[in-house]
Design a protein that fits this description.
CATH superfamily of the largest domain: Mur-like, catalytic domain
Number of domains: 2
Structural class: alpha/beta
Strand content: 5-15%
Distance between the termini: 28 Å
Largest sheet: 8 strands, mixed
Number of strands: 17
Shape: globular
Radius of gyration: 22 Å
CATH topology of the largest domain: UDP-N-acetylmuramoyl-L-alanine:D-glutamate ligase
Strand order of the largest sheet: 4-3-2-5-1-6-7-8
Length: 521
C-alpha cells in the first residue's frame, strides 16, 4: 500500500464553508467575525449556538466556566474595517503588506510589537494567556492544553508557529483556523495600522505582525484562554508583551545557537525571559543546568516554580483506534488515552496536566473533564500517523529526533522505516541523521522547496550521510513527491518523514485534505 499521495486515489473535496469562530460576534450576512467589533460581555447571547452546545453538552461542568482572572472586555480595540482587504493580507492569494515582510527576519526586542499592539487598541490586555516556550515540545504541549481547555467548556485561542501549509493555522479559535474572509479583513486592518504615520519610525517583522494579528483575532472572538506559543527564545520574542496566567517552559536543548547562545545555560536564560513577577512557572524535563537557571529567574521574580511531576508509573498500552496509534496509561487515578505516541508525549501531557491542575481553582476548571478530552488531541506534523503506512514528524534538531526515535521504538517495537528526510543548512543535520540511523532501513533525501533559506539537496545529504558513516543505504530524490513515490515502493517498511517542519508541511499537503491540517476539532 502506498503512503497515500493525493491524486493516486480519489479524495474528498477540500471545499468547505468558512471556518466558524465560536464565541465571537458575527455579521448576519457573512457569518464571520466583524473587524472593528468585539464581544461586549460573557453572555451566551453573543455565542453561536454550536459553541454553546460545545460547552453544555456534558453535565460535568457549567456551560461557561467562570474564568475569574479574565479582565473585562472594555479596551478601545475598535478599529474599523478597511476597504480593499483582500489586496493587503499577504499569503499566496493576495500578496501585499505581509508578503513584503521576511518570514525569516529576526529583530530582537519588544518595542515594535508593543507599538503595533498600541495602534490597534492593545487587544492583548483583554485576554488571559498561557505562555509557552521551549526548544522542543511546546507545540504538542500547547495542543494538549488547548484541547483539554476546550473539552472542559472554555473557548480557546491558540497561536503557534510556523505553519505547515497555510498561515491561518497560526490563528485557531476553538481548534478552528480563522476563515479566509476574517483573515483577510483583520490583516488589512492591521496593515493599515502598521503603515500609519505616527511620528515614530517603525518597521515590523513578519512575526511581529502575526503576533499582533493573533491578539486582535482572539480579543474580537472573546475567548476565555489563549495558548500563546513563542516563536524563538522568549526574552526578546514578540509574544513576550503579555502578562500571562502561567509561564510554561517545556525543555531546553541546543538549537538556534546563533541567536540564543551556544550553551544550555545561555539558551535557558533566554527562555526564562518569559517569567513574569508573581506569575507561576511550570517546567518540563530538562538538563539540570537549565533547570537551575529558570529556578533562579523565578526566585528573582518571586514567581512560584513547579518542576516536572514524577514520571508516570505503571504499564503503558498501545492500541489502534480508527487508524491511529493511541497510548493508554494511568495518571492521578484516571485512565488517560493519548493519541500522540511516545514517552516524550507523556512528559508533555504531565506538564500540561500540572498546569491545569494548579490553575483549576482560579479558572473554575473541571480537571476530570479536561483530562478525558485529551483523547481527542490532534497535532499535525508531530509524530502524526497519517495512515497505516505513513508517519510525518517535523523534528529538526538532534534532541527532537532522539525523542521521535524513542517514541517510534516504543509504539512500533522492532520496526525500521524508509526515512524521507530534508534539512536546512543552518541546522545540525548530521546530529539529526545519527538519531534516526538505527530506525532507518534506508534514507531517501529530498530538497526543501522553501527558497528563503539555504537547504541541502538530496545529493548533498547522501554525501553527508557517507561522511558521517551512517549504516542505512541512501538515495536522492528531486522533490518531496518523488521521495514519497520512492518510499512507497518499499512494501516491507512504513514511510517516516522527518527533518523539517517545512518538509512535513509539503508532505501533508500532498497526502491530506487541507481542512484536516488546518483544524484541530
Amino acid at each position: 500500500m502506498r503512503p497515500g499521495l493525493k491524486g493516486s486515489t480519489p479524495s474528498r473535496s477540500t471545499t468547505s464553508k468558512p471556518a466558524r469562530i465560536p464565541g465571537s460576534r458575527r455579521s448576519p450576512a457573512s457569518g464571520s467575525l466583524r473587524p472593528g467589533r468585539r464581544t461586549t460581555g460573557r453572555s451566551s447571547a453573543n455565542v453561536p449556538t454550536a459553541a454553546v452546545r460545545r460547552s453544555t453538552s456534558s453535565t460535568a461542568g457549567p456551560a461557561r466556566p467562570g474564568c475569574s482572572c479574565r479582565p473585562p472586555t472594555t479596551s478601545p480595540c475598535r478599529p474599523g474595517r478597511v476597504p480593499g482587504a483582500a489586496d493587503m493580507t499577504g499569503g499566496k492569494a493576495g500578496g501585499g503588506y505581509l508578503d513584503s515582510l521576511s518570514m525569516f527576519g529576526i529583530k530582537p526586542g519588544l518595542e515594535a510589537t508593543a507599538e503595533l499592539m498600541r495602534r490597534v487598541g492593545n487587544p492583548e490586555k483583554e485576554l488571559s494567556f498561557l505562555h509557552i516556550a521551549g526548544t522542543n515540545g511546546k507545540g504538542s504541549t500547547g495542543a494538549m492544553l488547548e484541547c483539554m481547555l476546550r473539552g472542559a467548556g472554555f473557548t480557546t485561542g491558540f497561536y503557534t508557529s510556523p505553519h505547515l501549509v497555510d498561515i491561518r493555522e497560526r490563528f485557531r479559535v476553538n481548534g478552528i483556523a480563522v476563515s479566509e474572509e476574517d483573515y483577510a479583513a483583520f490583516s488589512a486592518e492591521l496593515a493599515a495600522a502598521a503603515r500609519a504615520e505616527t511620528g515614530r519610525d517603525f518597521t515590523f517583522t513578519y512575526f511581529e505582525f502575526t503576533t499582533v494579528l493573533a491578539a486582535m483575532i482572539f480579543a474580537r472572538a472573546g475567548v476565555d484562554v489563549v495558548v500563546w506559543e513563542t516563536g524563538m527564545g522568549g526574552r526578546l520574542d514578540s509574544t513576550n508583551v503579555v502578562r500571562p496566567l502561567a509561564s510554561v517552559i517545556t525543555n531546553i536543548a541546543l538549537d538556534h545557537q546563533a541567536y540564543l547562545g551556544d550553551t544550555i545555560e545561555k539558551i535557558a536564560a533566554e527562555k526564562a525571559g518569559i517569567v513574569k513577577p508573581g506569575v507561576p512557572v511550570f517546567t518540563g524535563v530538562m538538563p539540570e543546568e537549565a533547570r537551575r537557571v529558570i529556578a533562579e529567574k523565578a526566585r528573582a521574580e518571586k514567581s512560584p516554580c513547579f518542576g516536572p511531576p514524577p514520571e508516570i508509573a505503571g504499564p503503558v498500552h498501545y492500541r489502534l483506534d480508527g487508524g491511529r496509534t493511541v497510548q493508554e496509561f494511568e495518571y492521578g487515578g484516571r485512565l488517560i488515552r493519548l493519541p500522540l505516541p511516545g514517552a516524550m508525549q507523556r512528559r508533555n501531557f504531565r506538564l500540561a496536566a500540572q498546569v491545569l491542575t494548579e490553575l483549576a481553582p482560579k479558572l473554575g476548571l473541571d480537571s476530570g473533564r479536561a483530562f478525558r478530552a485529551v483523547a481527542d488531541c490532534r497535532w499535525p506534523g508531530r509524530c502524526q500517523q497519517v495512515n497505516s503506512r505513513l508517519i510525518v514528524d517535523g523534528g529538526h534538531n538532534p534532541d527532537g529526533l532522539a525523542a521521535l526515535a524513542e517514541s517510534l521504538e516504543e509504539a512500533f517495537p522492532g520496526e525500521t522505516f524508509s526515512v524521507v528526510f530534508a534539512g536546512f543548512k543552518d541546522k545540525n543535520v548530521a546530529g539529526s541523521l545519527h538519531m534516526l540511523d538505527k530506525l532507518a532501513a534506508r534514507f531517501i533525501f529530498a530538497p526543501l522547496s522553501e527558497s528563503d533559506r539555504p537547504s541541502y539537496t538530496g545529493a548533498e545529504l547522501c554525501g553527508l550521510a557517507r561522511r558521517e558513516g551512517l549504516s542505512a543505504e541512501t538515495a536522492a530524490a528531486g522533490s518531496a513527491r518523488e521521495a514519497l513515490e520512492l518510499a512507497s515502493q518499499d512494501q516491507a517498511h512504513k514511510t517516516l518523514v522527518a527533518g523539517s517542519l517545512y518538509l512535513a508541511g509539503e508532505v501533508l499537503s500532498l497526502t491530506m485534505d487541507k481542512p484536516a491540517i488546518l483544524n484541530l476539532d
